[in-house]
Structure formats: structure tokens, C-alpha cells
Amino acid sequence: MADIQKTKAIVLKKLDYGDTSKIATLYSDNFGKISCIVKGARSPKSKIGKIIDPLNHVEVVFYKKENRDVQLLSQANLVSNFTNIKEDLDKLKYATAVVELINSIFQEEYKNELIYKGTVKILELIDSGEDQPILYFTKYFLFFLKEIGYEIQTSNCSRCSKDIEEFDLSFNFETGIICEECSHETINSVKLSTELFKIILCLSQRNKSITYTNKDLNSILFLLEKYLTYHIPEFSGLKSLHMF
Ligand SMILES: [Zn+2]
User: Fold this and answer.
1) 220 CA distance to ligand 1 centroid (A)?
2) Structurally, what CATH architecture does the domain formed by 84-243 represent?
3) pTM here?
């Protein structure tokens, strides 16, 4: 027996399946990450095939069978297709990085409502917010790390727990921000400038007045990617950040 289920979701990716169908990976509100077959979706006339497109926010109906890897999708309605994102290469780059992050880190059926809500929110902001897409994405990356249990600590050394000042800090790829003494005792660390530390602090505290350059944010993203690679060996970095 299959249960008919309805949920909102973000489309992470879709692949051709057979001659006529597609398999879509969704990150859903109620069921976490799921894969669905969309029959007939390869036909140019398929309305549902157009709705189920990466980055779209959708509402779907599907037949859920336990112990089945791929569910059967029967209906889809568009909630938003983020038109600004699709017309701007820079917005597209960071929105794609958001879905790539979820898709590469989460196992099937991994559910986290806060991450679902945060993901919808960040895509809306990348689509129509006033700040640069890279700033939204860096904030999202820090939020994501916190939610999966790898928060970047900003008040204490992540190795010896001593209170930290803004100066003489380093970033350790295994533990995060560390004090000067610890930096002499570890490998896999790089110096963390006061400017970069202050930006990480502002972003983690959701401080609105923040001074940054894109170079600073790129440096922070590099550190976060390395850090995540250290904790999740299957994660090999975000291709979308490097291919645009
Ligand atoms: Zn320390």
C-alpha cells in the first residue's frame, strides 16, 4: 500500500530516466530529502516536467511507499520559480550552491524543518533581497553548519576553550577558530585576520551593519568548505562556487 502525501519542497536536481521520465530529488518540508519519479516529464508538453525544475519551490503530491527509494510523483504546483535568480548569473551561482550543499550533505529522508525554512528564506533573499548573493550564501553556510552540529565557535577557542580576542587567531580545518597558543600546536591551520574574524562574528550574530569585500567572503567560504570536508569525508566541495 502506498499513502498519498502532499508537501512543499525545493527541487534540488533532476535527471533523465528511461525515454520519457525524470527522477527528481526534492528537499521537502514534511519528509526531508526524497527522490521521485516524474512520469512523462521529458516531453516538452509536460507541464509537471517544467514545474519540477531545479531551484523551484513547489508543492507536490506523491505516493509514498515505505522501503522504496524512489516515490511516484502525481501532481505539482509552483509556489515560486525565483525568476530573478534565473536571470542573474551571480544570483544563480549562489542559489545553486545552496541546493548543492543540501544535496551533497544530506542522506535520503534526512529531515530538518529549520533548514527547510532557512533554505526557502535564503532563496527568497537571493532572489529579491538588497544585499549581494555571496553575503546571503555565506550567512546560510554558517547557519547550515550550526544546524548540522558543526557550528563555528566565535567566543571561545575551539580547541582549548579559552576566551578569544580578535587578534592572533587562526582557523583550524578540523575544529574552527583557535587561539594563538593552539595554532602553534596544530597542523592544518591558517592565520585568520582580524577583519575576517569580525565578519564571521557579524554574520553569526546576524549583525546588520557589516563591512566586507567579496574577497573577504570568498576567503571565508574557502575556510568553511575545507572545514566541512574535514567533517564529512564524502563532501568534496561545492562545484557551483568554482564553475561560474
Ligand atoms: Zn586555544
Assistant:
1) 20
2) Up-down Bundle (1.20)
3) 0.94
